[in-house]
Amino acid sequence: METYDTVTEAVKGLKLRGFNIDFNLEPDRVYCPQADIALKPAEFEITEFYRFEGESDPADEAVVYAIEGRGHKGLLVTGFGISAEGMAEEMVEKLSVRPQART
For 9, 45, 49, 51, which has the most beta carbons within 10 A of its beta carbon? Predict the structure, then answer.
């Protein structure tokens, strides 16, 4: 797994490696409106993720997920500790990745 110091570096690096779809988080799927691609939790895997903690500003805290599914490779950038309220249980479980992250 690569090492990145900022969210911007992670996004740029992953895009250079073919993760070109920008996904948005929805309650029961990830969705890219520009390409009209929707993936339910069972249809994708998180192949890498990077956590960033804002040293001086909690608003800088984020997680960058590299997602692969149904022949698509993309990114999902979320705030640290996304709220599970309104989220499907499968989606909450999918985003609760447990492998050791690089920060």
Answer: 49
